[in-house]
């Protein structure tokens, strides 16, 4: 049952990416080209996603727990540090250069284009490289009374 829901959600998400043009890097790059061939349609896609997410979160948070887990797993840190800002900037630069986000790129694997494979290999390499630049978490200290 759990796998069926995951498949259904992924299928709907992939169809949405395909219909919106997010799998086409030219459409994404034209959105960023505000002085040239600007295509504002991506803003409507993002706006629609924000509205659906806003409504979805309001409905989900009314529940005591998720459907398939005992508790919600929500990040607790609200720290904006160099790693967060640097990673966000790197993500944005990569998106602006390649015209792909990771999820649309995964959906675009079905197109058979080599650029998609190259992008995803680069993303995987970035994930692997990030393990070497992460600052180690200091061990928790116990206090005894």
Automatic annotation (TrEMBL):
Protein's name according to its UniProt entry: Putative transporter component
Entry keyword set: Membrane, Transmembrane, Transmembrane helix
Source species, domain of life: Bacteria
UniProt KW Membrane keyword: yes
Segments traversing the membrane: 42-60, 88-110, 116-133
Organism: Cognatishimia activa
């Amino acid at each position: 049952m759990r796998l069926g829901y995951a498949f259904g959600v992924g299928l709907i998400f992939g169809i949405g990416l395909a219909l919106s043009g997010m799998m086409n890097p030219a459409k994404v790059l034209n959105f960023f080209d505000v002085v040239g061939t600007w295509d504002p349609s991506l803003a409507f896609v993002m706006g629609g996603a924000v509205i659906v997410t806003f409504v979805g979160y309001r409905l989900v948070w009314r529940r005591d727990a998720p459907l398939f887990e005992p508790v919600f797993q929500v990040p607790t840190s609200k720290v904006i540090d160099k790693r967060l800002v640097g990673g966000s900037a790197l993500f944005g630069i990569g998106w602006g250069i390649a015209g792909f986000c990771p999820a649309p790129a995964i959906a675009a694997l079905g197109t058979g284009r080599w650029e998609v494979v190259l992008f995803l290999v680069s993303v995987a390499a970035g994930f692997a490289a990030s393990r070497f630049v992460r600052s180690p978490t200091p061990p928790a200290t116990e206090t005894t009374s």
